[in-house]
Specification:
Rossmann fold, alpha/beta, 28% strand, 425 residues, 3 domains, binds S-adenosylmethionine, four-stranded antiparallel β-sheet, ten-stranded mixed β-sheet, 8 helices
């Protein structure tokens, strides 16, 4: 846009001459001499609307195309403090060119299309080893604004790898506060290729920050296979058929009760170590379950832990149980950096409730949005690649018959909730 300073020029109603005293070029993102942006934030406009609303009458999920910096700025007015979870999987600053695997023509033959530098066909990670400054500027500008958008109970997950994670950790500390760093999730995405002459890189790192101390968190568990369960709970209760293992009731940490008596299942027992439970606890728990105590061959009491009450192995920050997608995986839709739904399922279930708003500002093939949809969360996704947006749109419209994420082994049967596709003005 060109702005001019018209001095003088109207005589009566009709301008007769225009003298341009000052000429100024204004472009999107231009800043004044003090570094303040001088252009107005851009706004999003709907270009396509799909289905009728099922959530709150006023809400439609959103898929926006364009550079996310402008989208994020346009959201500040209405979404500050309203987003419950942000997951981003930005370019890793690796300098890699990603190729897109596309089915072409009637033959449906697979071919590889090199992504160009334009935003049309996929993306290039343009930052190589020499452009860390510009990569960090890119990330910093976006993360500062995303911080504003997060709800007080909200969380952000930033998916990176060795190229930049250590630098981004430090800028995240600055923006979100070190005390809000909840952990670095180490995702083992490959068992290793054993081809490289140096050490294989087998992991990505996902940085997790909350907006405040008051975050929403649901502990997640890893289910064990039947074989693992049988190994962990090797005994069967004769009276009920329940599988169990047994745990100690005496331990030196409770040495204050050495020599004290307990009446357990009608037997009077003393301890040389210390009791874990008071007499009241023994009485209450045995009343709840008369088969609770396991007596060893030496006549010592232990208590039973049952397989049917076991929630699974508590998930920590080392994730080795989620495989990256194999080339022939049914979930694959042909986007080179597509992440597995299981990864997003864990993150979304860990930090949101149904109906919460989940946003991915680098949504690629739409994995986050797909998982949010299947788990009954509201969602927004942004990508600068029109190809990614089209792929995501198709993916969201063909969810029926894909893997259900709530019940293992079932197919997802629901219609996709209404959503709209937006673009920047
Ligand atoms: C690593 S991929 C994300 C893959 C995604 N997690 C998935 O499962 O498919 C990164 C994405 O960021 C997009 N991207 C890069 N720079 C962007 C920007 N400034 N604004 C919006 N999207 C951008 C790329 O087009 C690419 O699709």
């Amino acid at each position: 846009m060109l702005k001019s300073n018209n001095s003088e020029v109207s005589r009566g109603e009709i301008p007769v001459m225009t003298v341009i005293e000052k000429c100024e070029l204004i472009w999107r993102g231009k800043k004044d001499r003090k570094g303040k942006p001088i252009d107005k934030p851009r706004t999003l406009k709907v270009i396509q609307s799909i289905h009728t609303p099922r959530f709150a009458k006023t809400w439609r999920n959103k898929l926006a195309t364009g550079d996310n910096i402008f989208v994020i700025k346009s959201l500040l007015k209405d979404f500050t403090g309203k987003i419950n979870l942000v997951y981003i999987d930005p370019p890793f600053g690796s300098g890699t060119t990603y190729k897109l695997s596309l089915k072409v023509g009637k033959t449906q033959e697979k071919t590889y299309k090199k992504s160009s530098n334009t935003i049309k066909n996929g993306f290039n990670d343009i930052w190589g080893e020499t452009s860390l400054d510009s990569y960090l500027t890119f990330m910093f500008e976006r993360l500062v604004l995303i911080h504003e958008l997060l709800a007080t109970t909200g969380s952000i997950f930033v998916h990176l790898d060795w190229h930049t994670v250590h630098y981004v950790k430090v800028i995240m500390d600055e923006i979100f506060g070190r005390k809000n760093f909840r952990g670095d999730i180490i995702w083992q995405r490959t068992p290793g290729h054993h081809l490289s002459s140096t050490m294989d890189v087998m992991t990505d790192v996902i940085l997790w920050y909350s907006k405040t101390d008051n975050l929403l968190y649901h502990q997640q568990y890893q289910y064990l296979t039947d074989e693992e369960l049988n190994e962990k709970f090797p005994y069967t209760e004769a009276e009920t058929g329940r599988r169990f293992t047994h745990e100690k009731l005496e331990q030196s940490a409770n040495a204050y009760s050495i020599g004290e008596k307990r009446i357990i299942d009608g037997r009077v027992v003393t301890t040389k170590l210390g009791w874990r439970w008071t007499q009241e606890t023994f009485d209450r728990r045995i009343k709840e379950n008369p088969y609770l105590i396991f007596w060893t061959s030496k006549g010592r009491p232990r208590y039973k832990r049952y397989a049917d009450e076991y929630l699974g192995r508590k998930i920590g920050n080392l994730w080795t149980d989620i495989q990256s997608l194999a080339s022939n995986d049914k979930e694959r839709i042909g986007y080179p950096t597509q992440k597995p739904e299981a990864l997003l399922k864990r993150i979304i279930k860990m930090t949101t409730n149904e109906g919460d708003l989940v946003v991915d500002f680098f949504c690629g093939s739409g994995t986050t949005l797909t998982v949010a949809e299947k788990l009954n969360r509201r969602w927004m996704g942004v990508d600068s690649s029109e190809y990614a947006i089209e792929l995501t749109r198709k993916r969201l419209l063909t969810l029926k018959g894909s893997k259900d994420l709530l019940v293992e082994g079932l197919c997802y049967e629901k219609e996709t909730n209404p959503f709209e596709i937006l673009t920047l003005d």
